[in-house]
């Protein structure tokens, strides 16, 4: 079986396996090892500080495989310390997708210096300084700072985000109409769900962007604002 199934089919099967099963599969053959290891590293199940440090020690030997780290399901974020994560990313310089949702990791600004990110999702603690450091991630295309504590004081930092950013999610935050003046010019999608401070004026700012995706559920618009939105955003897909 190890030599007869095509890699494409094996990948689909492995996606359905538990971490323990994948670890066993990785010992079957070289092909299975490559496929299973890639999935294991993309979705690590090491949620204790000790296992994170162990993963960091193994990372230099498998650095090119580690492209995605998702800690959004971390049950006990106390173990996911800034020190442990920084040590891991130092040994995994090829990480492109980082998800820290549901975590309370501090010193994220320092941690991000280790990465060349394409997508990033951050936890509740977000600041202007952090947004500024994200501006140094020139390959960044997708950013999720929903349910974070960004405010008007951080508004100009939105303008420091990479100009080639494609999608920004600021749902359930305190962003205002004024903050939308500083959005990256090539933004193709934005999440504004439950942004109570967004109104008709903000819609005017959105109209200048080449948007193809918009989530505006829960924002308060007048009939005039809705008319402006429908006429200006004809290219929106959904």
UniProtKB/TrEMBL annotation:
InterPro entries: F-box-like_dom_sf, F-box_dom, LRR_dom_sf
Every F-box domain range: 4-44
Any Pfam family: F-box-like
Protein name from the UniProt record: F-box domain-containing protein
Gene3D superfamilies: 1.20.1280.50, Ribonuclease Inhibitor (3.80.10.10)
Species whose genome carries this gene: Bifiguratus adelaidae
């Amino acid at each position: 079986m190890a030599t007869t199934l095509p890699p494409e089919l094996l990948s689909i099967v492995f996606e359905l396996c538990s971490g323990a099963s994948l670890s066993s599969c990785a010992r079957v053959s070289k092909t299975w090892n490559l496929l299973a290891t890639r999935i294991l590293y993309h979705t690590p199940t090491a949620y204790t500080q000790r296992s994170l440090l162990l993963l960091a020690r193994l990372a230099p030997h498998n650095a090119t495989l580690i492209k995605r780290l998702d800690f959004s399901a971390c049950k006990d974020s106390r173990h996911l310390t800034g020190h442990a994560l920084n040590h891991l990313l130092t040994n995994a310089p090829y990480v492109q997708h980082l998800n820290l949702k549901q975590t309370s990791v501090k010193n994220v600004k320092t941690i991000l210096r280790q990465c060349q990110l394409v997508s990033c999702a951050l936890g509740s603690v977000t600041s202007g300084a952090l947004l500024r450091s994200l501006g140094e991630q020139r390959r960044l295309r997708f950013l999720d700072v929903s349910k974070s504590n960004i405010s008007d004081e951080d508004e100009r930092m939105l303008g420091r985000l990479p100009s080639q950013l494609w999608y920004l999610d600021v749902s359930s935050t305190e962003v205002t109409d004024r903050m939308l003046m500083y959005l990256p010019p090539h933004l193709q999608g934005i999440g504004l769900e439950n942004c109570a401070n967004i109104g008709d004026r903000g819609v005017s700012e959105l109209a200048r962007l080449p948007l193809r995706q918009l989530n505006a559920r829960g924002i308060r618009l007048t009939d005039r604002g809705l008319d402006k939105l429908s006429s200006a955003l004809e290219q929106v897909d959904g």
